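Student: Please help interpret what follows.
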Amino acid sequence: MKGRSKILAVVLVLAALCGVRSRAPAWSVSEEIRLGRRFELQARARLPLVSDVEVLEYVNRIGGRIVSTLGAQPIPYRFYVTRDPRVNAFAVPGGVIYVNAGLLLRASSDDEVAGVLGHEIAHIHAHHLARQQEATQILNYTSLLGMLLSAVQPAVTAGAIALQAAAQLQYQREFEQEADYQGARFMREAGFDPRGMLNFFRKLLDDQRAGPAAATPYLLSHPLTEVRLSNLEALLRDHGWERETPHNASLPLARVQVRLATLLEPASDVVERYRRRAMEKPEDATQQYLLGLALLFTGQPDLADRAFERARTLGLQGTEREIGRAWLARRDPAKAAEWLRQAVQRDANDAVARYVLAQALRALGDEAAAEEELDRAIALVPNFEEAVQTLGTLAGRRGEEAKGLYFLGKAAYLRGDLDQALSYWERALPLLPDGSDRHAEVRESLAELRALRR
C-alpha cells in the first residue's frame, strides 16, 4: 500500500501539469489518445482499481450522460474508480478519467458527482494540456509522456514535479475557470443541476480551511479560492442555472456508497452503521433497503432478504434486483432468475441486473441465454472485467475461439495482467476477420503492449 500511495501521490501532482506548457506545437488528437492509452496501460497494472459492477455502472452512467451532450467525439472517454479513500479525481489526455472511491463516498447527490465528472470532461474536451504546451517551454510531448509513465515508477520524486507544476499554477487557474463554465454547461445539458458542482467544491474549500491535514488531494491539481467559487456562483445565477430545491442522495449513489464502504472498511463496522440507521428510522424503507445491501455485500443473504422484504412492505419500489441477488447467494438460481427478469423489465439498462441474471442462467445450464445477458451488460459497462472474463469463457466453451480469446485478452487487460492479455490477443488476431473492428482493436493493442515490453 505504501508503494501505491506514492504512485497515487505522483499521479495527482501530474494531473496538475494542466498548468505546465511547452514550446512544442499542440498535439494532435491522435497524439492525445496515444498518450492516454500509454498511461492507461501502465496505470491498469499498478493503480488499485475498483472492479465492482455496481460502482462502475454508476460512474459510467453519469459520465456517459455528460459525454453524450458533446455530440460525435474523436476521443473515446473511459471512467475508472480507484480504491482510495481520499477525495480526488483526475483526467489524462485522451479521454481517461479516474475517480477515487473517497470522492463518491463524500458526495451528497448525483449532481455533485456529475459536477466533478463534468469538470474533468471539460479539461479533456478543451484539450487544456495540449493548449498549454503551445505557450511555454517546459515540457514537450515526449518528456511529458515520460513523466506520466514515471508515475508508476519509483525513479521520479513527487517533490520535484510538484515544484515545477506549482510554478505554473496561474495557467492552471485560467483553465480551471474554463472547465468550471464548460463543465457546468455540459452537466446542465445532461439533465443535472450545475449547482452540484458549486456545492461539492465548497465542501472541499471548507476542508482546506480546516487545516492542511484536512485538505484533500483534489486540491493539489484543482486549487480552489473563494474568488473562483464566487465566479462560479455568479455564472450559475446569471444563466439561471439554479434550482430552488437541492437534490439529496439518489438511491443509486447510496447503493454505491454501501458497496464502497464494504470494500474499504471492516464488514462488521459497515453492517453495524447501517443497522443503527435502520433502527433509528424503523419506518424508513430506504434505510431498511441499505441495511439489506450491507448484509448482502458482507455475505449474509438470509438476513439481507428479510431487510429487502421489509423495505418492500414499507413501500419501496425497485428491489427486485437485490432480492434476486440474495436468492442467487442462497443457491436458488431459478428463484433468482425470476426476480432478476423483473428487474431487467423495469430497467433494460441495468448492467448489474443483467450480469447477475447471466450468473443465474448459467447456474441453470442455459449458457446461450447467459451469454446474451453478458453481451448486454458489457455494452452498458465496457470496463466490466468480471463480465468480460465470463463471456470469454462461455464463448470458448461454445467453440467460438476468436470471440473467446478476444474477451479473455480484454479481461486480462482490464485487470492489469498485460502479459496474459498479450498472449491471448496474439492467438486471437489471426482468427478475427480482417478489417473488423475487433481485428483493428487487437492489432493496435498488441502494438502498444509490445512497445511497453521493449
About this structure: Residues 37 and 185 are 27 Å apart (CA to CA). The longest helix spans residues 169-189.
